[in-house]
Design brief:
25 strands; single chain; 18% strand; 745 residues
Length: 745
Amino acid sequence: MPADADRALAAREDALPGLADVLTPTRDSAWWRQVCPDAPGDPVVSYVKYKPGQSCLAGVVAGNGARYIVKAWRPSDPAMAGYEVVDAARAITVTRFPHDAKVRGSRWLHDEASRDRAHERLGLPTPAECTVDLLAWKPERRAVYRVSQAGTPIALVKCHTASAARAAEGVTAALQELPFPTPLVRGSSARRGAIAYHWIAGHALTHDSVSPDQCRKAGQLLAALHTSSGRALGVRDAGERHQRLRDSVAALTMLLPDVHAAARDALAEIERRRPAAGPPVPTHGDFYVKQLLDTGDGLACLDFDEAAMGDASDDLAVFVAHIERDVARGSILAHRATQIEDALLDGYGRHCGSLDLALAEHLLGLVHHPFRHRAADWAGDTRALVDRVRFLLARGRAPGTPSTRGQRAVDVAAPLLDHAQATAAVRAGVPGYPNAEVTSVRVERHKAGRRTLFSFVVRATAGAPEERWLAKARARGTDHRTAALQQSLWDAGLHSGSSHGVSVPALLGVLEGHHALVQRWVGGIPLPAALADGCAPAIAGRRVARALEVLHGAAVHVARRWTIDDELGMLEERLTALATARPSLAAGVARLWHRLVPLAAPLRTRARLTLVHRDFYHDQLLFDGERTWILDLDCAARGDPAMDVGNFAAHLVEGAWRGEYPGAHAAAVIQSLLDDYTRDAAQGARDAVARWTALSLARLLEIALHHDARRASVPELLDRLLHWLPARARGVSLTPPALLALEVA
């Protein structure tokens, strides 16, 4: 997908003949062999700044670590004369870092003739007494270095453009009286655009690692900033910020033309509804979780380069916008985002009203980030961001939308309950059905504020036979990622006529305005019903194994990854929630967690990664004669295939423990699945499945709290899991998952 999106962009951009080579250079590019002939592997593009019709700058890292500023130009651009041309026909220039004409401090720090003077001016030890390591780099904008002495960091050096450096130094001086640690200047050179700060010891926070308590402290820190004097801070130029937003949206006309209209309409609505700014207060300007350090004594705040007098809601909205961006691209889970946002606002403490409009504006301002920072699926991530902006705007204008934080979504799919609106949506969003009529709509499942599953009865034309479709609507935006994966699997052979008998439902279209994917209804019965109808457990297990073999072997691209550390992070949150909801179980939950962490450790060495379902259990399969349908690919990612086998086993074990079906049946299905799936697998596959089974069982403990029929069984399930784990967690292998079910047979 990324290569396809880059090629499509280069094909549209006829003013820059070298764009394709700058976006995706390879070791075989003639100009690259001229620049760096001995570097191993393909060069990696870490950063891009694209001006449609004018130029495209890329930060390129060679396999030997050398960095280059590569530019594609319009062949007639006179500014190209100031650079070294390496491919005249395609107007490509290359500058070796640190020779950056706009960030002069980098060369000053590296040049043998000038670095002694540079260290003296910046208040640093001599070059012989310290080491300088590059931490971050944005070509022609900024380079950031860590200075260490005897292995201990002592300073941070930022090299900016000259004007940005002057502004940053002025801001630092204006914010020295804040009640939390901020960077203190050691030395500077305005002419060179370089500033050295005293190092602040601590560990940086991320959305994956930040705790609710740290988020509350972040809110308190922000409130302290907003109520400080801010002395000599300038006033933020709102017009300049709005123009940058317009430029980002305008760039989509070339980047993703099919998305531009939606982004343009969102921008127009934001500008139409934008309220007058609140009273100016000192604001950070770029406040998000990576600007925070936990020092052990509290939080420190970094990077006040954008600080100015402005609207307090902007800082809150920027913080939340970065969270929403990570949710949209799948790097953090939605419930994790809600925890972070709620804790931040709790700590901030002041009523700030709805953030939806400001959040939509700042999230739209990040729409170029997936492309600029070379996300693996930048096109998909950009679409997800624009979808999320549209959702926020719809939520903000919805009549009677609750203002409580717990209700974070309105059901944008509700209009589909009206036959006329459903018909109009189908005709617009499902290719090949311009005259379709929806004659019946029914809600199959609904999770308030999250998603709704509809079934439609549809006639393609008047008098045609009725067809049954499913429409799955997601409140936080259209799930283009799943749509693309489902279509790719269909195209890769998992279609309704596949010879191997494993299929996914046919994707029919996308109802964009309702955040809904539409697919054909598929028949069949789930595993428990098949067993009750007389299907032999051994045959059922082999069919499940075959479905997984086909899914895991599918030659399709999926950008999202799911590692054992992701699983442990989610599991820690779920077990913490369980202990909070059931204090009487807290001690047992703590014992369980301390056994699970070492149990999971060997899974880090699992080298094989495939497409995995990640929510694979008996309700995600339908047996339809000799065909097996795989459903609900929303959580799919690249990961350890043993995860899916273990998750399937865990659901059967948990059901058997609760008495939902005979343990002997569950054991036989799992044993057959294991025998068939691991027949040709590498050594240790069964052990990996058993470990994933234990982790999945622990996750099901918290999930049971949300189901009336399962809630009462939680204490017993916890006892069973604790009873099973002690002796086995310390051994080199675990009991095969089938024996877990046999214990209750």
